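Researcher: Here's a chain I'd like modeled. Treat it as a single chain, no partners, no ligands.
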Amino acid sequence: MQVYLDNSATTRPFPRVVAAMQEALEECWYNPSALYKPALEAEKKVAAAREVCLKAVNAQGQRLIFTSCGTEADNLAILGHLRGMRQPGRVLILCVEHPAVLTCAEEITRMGHRVEEIPVTAKGTADLDWLEAHLDTDVRMICCMQVNNESGAIQPLMEISRLRDAKCPEAAFHVDGVQGFLRTPLDFKALHLQSYAFSAHKIHGPKGVGGLILEKSFKVAPILHGGGQEDGYRSGTENTPGILGLGEAVRAYPMDGSAEMMANKRLLWQLIQERIPSAKLNGPELDDPACAPHILNVSFPPVRSQTMLFALEGDGIYVSSGSACSSRKQKLSSVLTAMGLSTERIDSALRFSLCPGLTAEEMTYTADRLAAQYQVLSRFVRR
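Model: Modeled as a single isolated chain. Structure tokens:
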């Protein structure tokens, strides 16, 4: 049996997505910026994909810029907005953000702004008390992800939005939704967001395409210059097959997908606890509203995470020892470190990330092989 449980790294495209992209490559390959009829048909299909993405987060009437990925979308929102500011100020960034956001700090500082990191609680959510104490009118932007890619913690975006509205209403609020889009609810208008980034390949769409939703009046300077596509915000010929694949992924995503994933997540954690009582849950408890349905982070001390990861690979089970964007770098997880976990617990952590369509049989097989491997590997750990 083969069980893929690294869906926070990437997902397998839905068959409908593959079919839509195949059709686009064969029939809808025209440049959507051209003026003849086949190109205008391509433009209509791109517009339809744009609308279905906006509707998914109640952002109808706002602007959606198609990008090459979530990283580009984050950079465009953050750097594109701050670059045009004459008056420097403070930029608050959640300390457990994805590198796509965190590594913008150096460039933000060069612009003259001061970056401050918002700490997190032991379960991985933003420390609202700290945030309330540090919000003032000199804050230019707040960056907070929707769901953390390692702990599966859903961030308190509504509470952050209310604090922003009360204490620094002129500050922009950017959300990286790459790990949350379609898997946890989000209302762009209710949150009073200025920008929201997402990616296709995390929701069973293709790689090479993402999106940035902008509040209609939000000002962003382009970081790519050229032909002025995407209303001048993102030059370069539109990736029509990718965009249509993204649109189809949004249409195809099951409405009950989150409930199904949460049921499998509960089952997997229950089976792990029964078989390996020493296993430790990292992140919100499963009955906590801050618990995302698709990410389960568990430590198996004293077995090192990479040792267990490779053992499970031999059983046909694919998991992660952290963020796929940094899992090859031999250092402790900055996310779990920020949550205050011990070195042993961090060094033995595995991330299981789910998708719709997994079965109870696969969860049972995973737990059984985990237990068998743990029984063997834990005997050979040097203490």
